[in-house]
Amino acid sequence: MVPHLITALTGPINELEQRVLDSMPAIERWFRLEWMEHTPPFYSSVDIRNAGFKLAPVDTNLYPGGWHNLTPEMLPLAVQAAMAAIEKICPEAKNLLLIPENQTRNTFYLSNLGQLRRIFHMAGLNVRIGSISPDIKQNTTVELPNGESVTLEPVQRIKGRLGLKHFDPCTILLNNDLAAGIPGILEDLHEQYLLPPLHAGWSVRRKSRHFQSYEEVSKRFGKLLGVDPWLINPMFGQCGRVDLSQDTGLDCLRSNVDGLLTKIRRKYKEYGIPEKPFVVVKADDSSGGMGIITVRDVKALDALKLKHQDDAPRVSEVIIQEGVLTYERMHDAVAEPVVYMMDRYVVGGFYRIHAERGADENLNAPGSSFVPLAFEQSTHLPQPGVKPGASAPNRFYMYGVIGRLAMLAASYELEATDPNAEAYA
Amino acid sequence: MVPHLITALTGPINELEQRVLDSMPAIERWFRLEWMEHTPPFYSSVDIRNAGFKLAPVDTNLYPGGWHNLTPEMLPLAVQAAMAAIEKICPEAKNLLLIPENQTRNTFYLSNLGQLRRIFHMAGLNVRIGSISPDIKQNTTVELPNGESVTLEPVQRIKGRLGLKHFDPCTILLNNDLAAGIPGILEDLHEQYLLPPLHAGWSVRRKSRHFQSYEEVSKRFGKLLGVDPWLINPMFGQCGRVDLSQDTGLDCLRSNVDGLLTKIRRKYKEYGIPEKPFVVVKADDSSGGMGIITVRDVKALDALKLKHQDDAPRVSEVIIQEGVLTYERMHDAVAEPVVYMMDRYVVGGFYRIHAERGADENLNAPGSSFVPLAFEQSTHLPQPGVKPGASAPNRFYMYGVIGRLAMLAASYELEATDPNAEAYA
Question: Which positions in chain B have a beta carbon within 8 angstroms of at least one beta carbon in chain A?
Fold first, then answer.
């Protein structure tokens, strides 16, 4: 099922699509050479926004949930990619311990766990799910809407190893973004493979660091294709730690927002884009406290100060990012594509849609729903020769390329933040 | 579309299927460890026969044709596997030269070329087709039934490199089994990747060598699963060079046929199988001269001598192989599964069916046709817990395992026959 793409038939994005398709062999070779030098994240998902005149990633998740939203047709690709990933990292693996988020009652999330368990079981591993939640003191089985069930077992830490009762895994797969910090029970597991590494968690990651890497990637990719990197790169600024209740913090925010809006305005003028620029202000470490704020005018920041709630954390690390409209629609609801990757392979994706949000708003919010993309005949199956914008597979191939660029940026980012980096030097 | 499997609901094959499913993580791990030590063939296809009481490969092709018989759903898996293969062998590759058989007028074969071109193009390579046939003196474009076209271009050898006019490939992919010998134009291409290597061609390969490797593989696999390797291994004997017009040659053949029939009879007795044993006699090097002869009684060999045609080559290297019935049927036609692999991955398959052949006859003959298997949700997607024999995905997973065992045997075989082996030691 392919949504009607408002942007499908017109706009500068079609030029980009044409350029991407024409350069397909060069692009694939470029990725191959990059993966010789850099290690892809174990798995990832990337939220993409297509503004018609620009196509950019806005969020790169290194502990992706939502695997159950992929269609059954995408499953074999995910299994094959999981085989490749396991083979490369830990070919001798027998047992895999999957460590989920602590949301033990959310059936959507538990369906995601069921799907991950299926993928890695089919890749040839014994998979069990070990919860690090203090609420899970004994085996807890939850029925899923599809009739299957998921059993969460309490983890056991025995000296240097993490496991379950009668289950000693050689590999531990985190599906927990560690936003609340790295729990002690996961530290110093030197005898087991811990995937992804702990520094991929949000207690260490910063969005600004990721988009700094992405900017570097987009410049090199833009050079390869001969296109302005801005067409795929959301500009950003940062303020470090900002106390939103103090004027001093707001000053930095104000000047960054102002500067970024000016830069966007200049770009819009260059390309003749009749839209009103906006930026989004959000926590650099993805902590939920301040939410995601859309700002079209620097004056709105004063209101923001007044609106600031007393119970929210007053001090945040903040990133100010160029807002990217999404012009894709499905049944009148605003839609944005999400691309899923395992190892270096795009294995699927879906549209996140939200009927009550606008084209300039965050869709990853309560009320959103998901429509699988025909990614399985997409990211791998571009159709050369078809008119730009007219071919869903060609459009999806481009999304897969952007998703992989963000994944590559995450790879750079993880290298730069690796606490054990010296050990390899 | 899944054919009705006569063997699906009963018979010892279900025990094997159950054992294979129960051991899935062990099997996948075993393959992973094998591929750490051995290099899979670049691509391969394996003909499998399911006799209900026994399941065995009967032919392993290292230059597989028939890629166009795979369904569109299987294409993304093939593309992803091709990406993995290219990345491992020649990540810097830009241009791929595909060298086909010299059958320049067979549209089925040309459709196969079109499909291979599509797969490797989508994996990110510039693909062109270079013929080594003396008939191709200029670019020759042939329309395919699906509306596409294939252009065969004459190859050019310039010093140490093979290419086309204005096309210098770093990688050459052979889809020509070299049964007629290795042409000089393909020798000493030390500057380019030649895939598969020349010693994978039928001028060097011997079926007896392959099945000797397969016997070794099946013994180790049987041990892993705790099953009699005979359940997956066709026994064989060989005579070296036999002159079918002379009594001396026939003597060796006669004693081998007799000995093999006795061994099969013993196995049939052990398992209570009420079938009449038979063997097949065929050229060890796959040369077409003598065809494939089914022998149920050693006396039939005398008739064979008389029937021998004057224009056929009188001297052949011969392999005598245990005949494996195929009990699978589709619309009353005898069917046998063919499994396709790229690198170490099963990417698809189909049933070869032949309405005019018997369960003990070779189906790879004029008049055969092809029905795609639902392999895409099959070899990767076994359904644990389903009653043995009742699940097509479980059956196909088992076929994929047998296919990979034969591929592993081919890997052993290529190591043993590698003329440059010393250079690596």
Answer: 24-29, 31-33, 35-36, 72-73, 75-77, 79-81, 83-84, 86-87, 91-94, 121-126, 345, 376-377, 380-382, 384
> Residue B376 has what pLDDT?
42
Interface with B, mutate which of A22, A32, A342 (most B CBs under 10 A):
A32
- C-alpha atoms less than 13 angstroms from C-alpha of A69 in its C-beta half-sphere: 23
Asked if residues B136 and B104 have their Cβ atoms less than 8 Å apart, the reply is yes
What is the DSSP track for A198-216? GGGSTTT--HHHHHHHHHH
Q: CB pairs under 8 A, 24+ apart, for A395-400? A: A395/A5, A395/A8, A395/A17, A396/A337, A396/A349, A397/A20, A397/A21, A397/A24, A398/A16, A398/A17, A398/A20, A398/A21, A398/A55, A399/A48, A399/A50, A399/A55, A399/A337, A399/A339, A399/A349, A400/A339, A400/A346, A400/A349, A400/A375
The model's confidence at residue A322, banded by pLDDT at 50, 70 and 90, is very high
Q: Which residues, in sequence order, are bridge partners of residue A398?
A: none
Task: Kindly list the residues from chain B whose CB atom is less than 8 angstroms away from the CB atom of residue A125.
Answer: 25, 28
Q: What is the pTM of this model?
A: 0.88
Hey, are the CB atoms on B92 and A27 less than 8 Å from each other? Answer: no
Which is more confidently placed, B242 or B96? B96
Q: Are B68 and B111 in contact (CB under 8 A)?
A: yes
Query: Is B77's CB within 8 Å of A77's CB?
Result: yes
* Token pair listed for B358: 């018997």
Which residue of B33, B80, B126 is in closest CB contact with A81? Answer: B80
Interface TM-score (ipTM) > 0.95: no
| Residues of chain B positioned with their CB less than 8 A from the CB of A36 | 91
How sure is the predictor about A217, in pLDDT bands with cuts at 50, 70 and 90?
A: very high
Whole-number percent of chain B with pLDDT over 70: 84
Q: Using DSSP bridges, classify how beta strands B43-50 and B55-61 pair: parallel, antiparallel or unpaired.
A: antiparallel
Q: Is the dihedral of CA B195, B201, B207, B209 positive or negative?
A: negative
pLDDT at B49 over 50: yes
pLDDT, tens only, A32-57 = 999 999 999 999 999 999 888 899 99
Q: How much is the average pLDDT of B94-102?
A: 95
Q: Which residue has the higher pLDDT, A357 or A340?
A: A340
Under 8 Å between Cβ of A142 and A110: yes
Phi (first) and psi of residue B178, to 5 degrees:
55, 30
Specify the residue for token string 């049987």: B222
Q: In this complex, do B92 and A29 lie within 8 Å of one another by their Cβ atoms?
A: yes
- For residue A331, give every residue at least 6 positions away whose Cβ sits within 8 Å of its Cβ, in sequence order, or none: A353
Q: To probe the interface with A, which of B20, B23, B28, B346 has the most A CB atoms within 10 Å?
A: B28
The alpha carbon of residue B152 is apart from the nearest alpha carbon of chain A, in Å, by 20
Which of B80, B125, B146 is the best substitution to test chain A (most A C-beta atoms within 10 A)? B80
Residue A290: per-residue pLDDT? 63
pLDDT classification of B7: cutoffs 50, 70, 90? very low
SS3 label, residue B81: helix
Secondary structure of A61-129 in HEC code, one letter for each residue: ECCCCCHHHCCHHHHHHHHHHHHHHHHHHCCCCCEEEEEECCCCCCHHHHHHHHHHHHHHHHCCCEEEE
CB contact under 8 A, A80 and B80: yes
Residue A79 to residue A118: CA distance in whole angstroms? 9
Residue of A314, A313, A323 whose CA lies nearest to A234: A323
Report pLDDT for B356: 76
In the beta sheet, which residues pair with residue A250? none
Which one has a higher pLDDT value, B356 or A400?
A400
Closest CA of chain A from B267, distance in Å:
32
Measured CA to CA, the distance from residue A79 to residue A121 in angstroms comes to: 9
